[in-house]
């Protein structure tokens, strides 16, 4: 009986630990994984056309740890760059000082690939926007045709859709502060992380560990007799 109790306690702890593994928080993919992708978008458009800034947003009700943010990017012909910002609000009147979480620049590969943009040790429940733009013409591209996304969301996550800004709507000093409008085609990105356990999960884990301790104490007493 004691050995069975130990086995059950260990099984409970193992199941709880495995349940806390990394998962997809939110993901939107279009046509980038096709053998011959069709279409594209460029945060800075090609052929001398108007620059474009893209934003994609979501709301989650769970705290996450070890969060990684990716975007599917490329620059045809040679590596390029893309600027990114993770913020809690977009549009005129916003600022990174008030609404920013992380920002930086990533190098884009010559062929479409998931590019790691940033890693966060902790991301609290809330509303977030990933903003993509480019300081250099013809860089930071994504395939996104046909205009149909494959969206994946964890429990408690609401996808807020895709938006863009172009022309005089762009804030040259702060891309996330541009005037955005909704668009139907997908910004290809992915956010991965590990959900923090609910209080009830901690309680169950604590009970399992208490049971394990009692069982082991019983075994030691038997062995001492």
Describe the structure.
- By secondary structure, this protein is of the alpha+beta class.
- The protein contains three helices and eleven strands, in the order H-E-E-E-E-H-E-E-E-E-E-E-E-H.
- The strands form two sheets. A six-stranded antiparallel β-sheet has the order 5-4-7-2-9-10. Strands 6-3-11-1-8 form a five-stranded antiparallel β-sheet, with no helix packed on it.
- Helix 1 (2-19) runs antiparallel to helix 3 (199-224).
- It starts with a helix and ends with a helix.
What distinguishing features does this structure have?
225 residues; Jelly Rolls; 2 domains; six-stranded antiparallel β-sheet; five-stranded antiparallel β-sheet; 21% helix
Care to give the gist of this entry?
The protein is of the alpha+beta class.
Per DSSP, what share of the residues sits in E-state strands of 2 or more residues? 35-45%
Helix/strand class: alpha+beta
What is the helical fraction, as a range of percent? 10-25%
**SSE string, helix = H, strand = E?**
HEEEEHEEEEEEEH
Individual helix count: 3
- Major sheet details: 6 strands, antiparallel
- The largest beta-sheet arranges its strands as 5-4-7-2-9-10
Unreliable segments of 5+ consecutive residues: 9-19, 200-210
* Overall spatial form: elongated
């Amino acid at each position: 009986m004691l050995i069975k109790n130990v086995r059950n306690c260990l099984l409970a702890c193992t199941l709880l630990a495995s349940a806390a593994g990394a998962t997809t928080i939110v993901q939107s993919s279009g046509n980038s994984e096709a053998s011959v992708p069709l279409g594209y978008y460029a945060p800075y458009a090609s052929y001398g056309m108007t620059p474009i800034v893209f934003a994609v947003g979501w709301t989650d009700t769970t705290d996450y740890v070890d969060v990684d943010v990716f975007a599917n990017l490329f620059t045809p012909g040679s590596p390029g760059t893309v600027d990114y910002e993770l913020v809690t609000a977009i549009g005129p009147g916003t600022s990174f000082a008030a609404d920013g979480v992380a920002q930086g620049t990533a190098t884009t590969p010559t062929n479409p690939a998931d590019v790691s943009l940033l890693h966060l040790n902790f991301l609290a429940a809330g509303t977030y926007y990933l903003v993509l733009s480019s300081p250099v013409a013809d860089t930071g591209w994504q395939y996104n045709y046909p205009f149909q996304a494959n969206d994946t969301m964890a429990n408690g996550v609401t996808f807020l859709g895709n938006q863009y800004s172009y022309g005089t709507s762009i804030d040259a000093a702060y891309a996330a502060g541009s005037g955005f409008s909704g668009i139907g085609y997908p910004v290809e990105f992915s956010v991965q992380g590990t959900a923090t356990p609910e209080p009830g999960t901690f309680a169950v884990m604590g009970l399992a560990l208490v049971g394990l301790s009692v069982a082991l104490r019983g075994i030691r007493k038997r062995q001492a007799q």
